[in-house]
Each structure stands twice: as C-alpha cells, then as structure tokens.
Amino acid sequence: MTVASITDLDVTDHYAEALHEVIEAKAEHRAPTPTTGEEKTAAPVVDLMAALEKSVADARERRGESSGGSEATVHEMPAKPKKKTAAKKATAKKTAAKKTTRRKTA
C-alpha cells in the first residue's frame, strides 16, 4: 500500500480517542464519559452434540449401515499382569581395615 492510498481511507483510531478522553478526565478529576459504540450482534450458538450426532448418522448412512439406534458393543479390557519386582540385593560390607597413608613432606 502506498501512503496516498492509506490517507484516502477513512480510518479512525478509536483506541487513541478513548485513551485521550481517559487522560483528560483524570486531569480534570472526573469520570470518563462512556463511549457509545456499535452494538455487535452475538454469533449464533451451535449445538455441538447435535452436530456430532448428525455427522455420525450421515457417515453411517453413507456406509450403508442402519442408524436405527444400534449402539456399539463394549468389551471389558483384559487385566494386565502385575510386574514382578526384582529382589533387592544386600550390599556387601567392607571388611578391610582402613589403610593410613602418610604424605611425604618436602
């Protein structure tokens, strides 16, 4: 974009305007006036569970399965065998007596 094309745009810095208003209000020891802005409409709420159920039903229909409420079968997971812990080895005690060594001094 060129400078000319930017200056042709009708751009308003609402944040800077609101900041200047707050600064002026603080300097005059008063509360800032609330700004009236555009009312934003709320986005439509999507029911995720309904969308998921519809997606699953559509997928079943494409595969040729009946969507007549057939539930998936649930199987118990086999129990995992417990791991055996290795027996702890007893530490060998030192039986040798401490040897004392003398340092040679110069």
From TrEMBL:
Residues 23-41, 55-65 have a biased composition (Basic and acidic residues). Keywords: DNA recombination, Plasmid. Transmembrane segments: none annotated. Residues 23-106 are annotated as: Disordered. It comes from Streptomyces zaomyceticus. It comes from the Bacteria. This is Ku domain-containing protein. Residues 80-106 have a biased composition (Basic residues). The lineage of its organism: Bacteria, Bacillati, Actinomycetota, Actinomycetes, Kitasatosporales.
